[in-house]
Design goal:
This protein is mainly alpha-helical. The protein has 20 helices and 10 strands. Helix 5 packs antiparallel against helix 6, helix 6 runs antiparallel to helix 7 and helix 9 packs antiparallel against helix 14.
Length: about 500
């Protein structure tokens, strides 16, 4: 009889790692893998609530630049009349997507930060990738603090294990993180990229976002300093000749663009991915549904609001009524009054008359109706311009006005106006008058680009402005004091008892 005695056990030999299996410990060890990490962070911009679909609806409707048309139903429609609740699926989605962007940026910072390159090219790549991740994290926190106030801070990769992170003690904590991230990014990001990397985050984008962060905090002098940097060498940004080319699917990533989300429909990918298939059944799509959903000859989900239309008609310096040239570049309208009255100018035949009598005023910006009569499917490939040079010039002008230098802001405002052949102001007048001109200019130049809601909130005039416009349209006074911040999402309250206990009145 043979007896087998096992007298000891080597646990290390029993817990062998599969050398062919990647883990977070052994994966990020070369340039290709580290590029995959940062590319995955960029992919977050297409998540639900963001630029593939809901972002434009949410902020155009909240700003009363877009109005709900009958086909728009459900949770999106509640933004038009301010009846949304903490359970709104799109508020929950946008919150979740901001934090997914932060999570992926934190992974990049952790894992790429540990990578030890063995040549100068890869060393430069490493520092650039870390700068890109810092910008994405800063942009996400910028949006969160502006929309929700004191949000939980997730700064490191290890924070993913903490489900009950409390809200920040103050919004100042969040602004400090944003400033720190962007200052560090500015040090390492390149001024420009080669053609294959066009669309990646540049140093100019980081400077502009830092200037914007200063502006939102009323740090006027620091904001002006940042914008001055962008307007001078080695930066070569400029306004492109044709305003409308900023919102079509050609001439993208041009001299006016500081940061834009790359949108493209790839043959063979799923047309409907923006309804939740970004990284599951979407097939790698990155296009947007905006042109189709806003399209008056397509789904007709929204129209441009009366308030936005009326803003383009205003007195010139002599008191005469003036129609701003950007009206015909922004929406289709009525012959003899305002807006473009023809479409399909470049379809290969004669231009077609826009059917104003049937449809009223409808969006032209970010649509393709000059080049084709219908979209056909939601496969929009028009990049979303997030920061462009005209916005920078107007933010700089605003900082100068608030510093008490309206005369110095005059050239900046007129530079933006001259591009579209609008009349030039001879003076902006005293500070309050200059402030009103600047605010009007931002409304006209950036209409439908998801800036106005943020502007109205930071100027402290959101409630009075929205209610006045809604009342004029027969829609009552829906904006209440609580709407200065979005509600903390129900999803977060259900998962995080520290946040739930810090929310007042089931809102924020």
């Amino acid at each position: 009889m043979v007896f087998l005695f096992i007298t000891a056990c080597d646990e290390d030999r029993l817990n062998l790692e599969n050398p062919n299996e990647y883990t977070e410990v052994n994966y990020f060890t070369n340039a290709g893998q580290c590029l995959q990490a940062i590319n995955a962070a960029y992919a977050g911009f297409y998540f639900q609530g963001l630029f593939a679909r809901e972002y434009y609806f949410i902020f155009d409707l909240l700003a009363n630049e877009a109005e709900q048309a009958p086909p728009l139903q459900g949770a999106l429609a509640t933004f038009a009349n301010y009846t949304f609740s903490p359970a709104n699926e799109h508020i929950n989605a946008i919150w979740r997507s901001y934090y997914r962007l932060i999570l992926r940026s934190n992974l990049v910072t952790e894992k790429v930060g540990q990578w030890v390159p063995d040549n100068d090219e890869d060393k430069n790549l490493k520092t650039r990738i870390l700068g890109e991740a810092g910008f994405i994290r800063a942009w996400s926190f910028f949006e969160l603090v502006t929309l929700f106030g004191r949000v939980p801070i997730k700064e490191t990769w290890e924070d993913r294990f903490e489900f009950n992170t409390p809200r920040a003690d103050s919004i100042g904590q969040l602004w400090h993180i944003i400033e720190k991230e962007l200052l560090e990014a500015i040090e390492v990001l390149p001024i420009s990229y080669d053609q294959i990397n066009k669309g990646r985050i540049t140093r100019g984008a980081a400077i502009a976002l830092l200037g914007k962060a200063y502006l939102f905090q009323k740090k006027w002098s620091q904001a002006a300093d940042m914008f001055t940097l962008i307007e001078n060498p080695p930066y070569a940004y400029k306004l492109i000749d044709r305003f409308e080319e900023n919102f079509l699917d050609y001439n993208e990533n041009n001299e006016e663009s500081l940061f834009e989300i790359q949108l493209e429909h790839f043959p063979g990918t799923n047309t409907w991915y923006m309804f939740g298939g970004q990284e599951s059944w979407g097939g790698g799509s990155t296009h947007s549904g905006r042109a189709m959903e806003y399209g008056w000859n397509d789904w007709q989900n929204v129209f441009i609001s009366d308030a936005a239309v009326n803003a383009f008609s205003y007195p010139d310096e002599s008191g005469n009524n003036y129609i701003d040239p950007r009206a015909s570049m922004t929406f289709y309208g009525m012959a003899g009054f305002i807006g473009d009255t023809n479409y399909c100018d470049y379809c290969g035949g004669e231009a077609l008359p826009y059917p104003y009598e049937d449809l009223g005023f409808r969006w032209k910006k970010y649509n393709n109706y000059e080049n084709k009569a219908k979209e056909g499917l939601p496969e929009g490939s028009i990049n979303a311009r997030v920061i462009r040079y005209a916005d920078v010039l107007l933010m700089h002008a605003e900082a100068l006005i608030e510093l008490g230098y309206p005369d110095e802001a005059l050239d900046l405002v007129n530079t933006v106006r001259q591009r579209v052949n609008a009349f030039s102001y001879t003076t902006l007048g005293p500070q309050e008058n200059a402030r009103q001109i600047l605010r009007k200019e931002r409304q006209l130049e950036l209409c439908g680009e998801q800036h106005r809601f943020f502007d109205l909130i930071r100027w402290g005039i959101a409630m009075e402005t929205i209610n006045m416009e809604k009342q004029a349209a027969g829609r009552g006074n829906p904006f209440r004091p609580k709407h200065l911040l979005l509600p903390i999402p129900q999803l977060e309250k259900d998962l995080n008892y520290n946040v739930a206990n810090d929310v007042k009145d089931d809102w924020n």
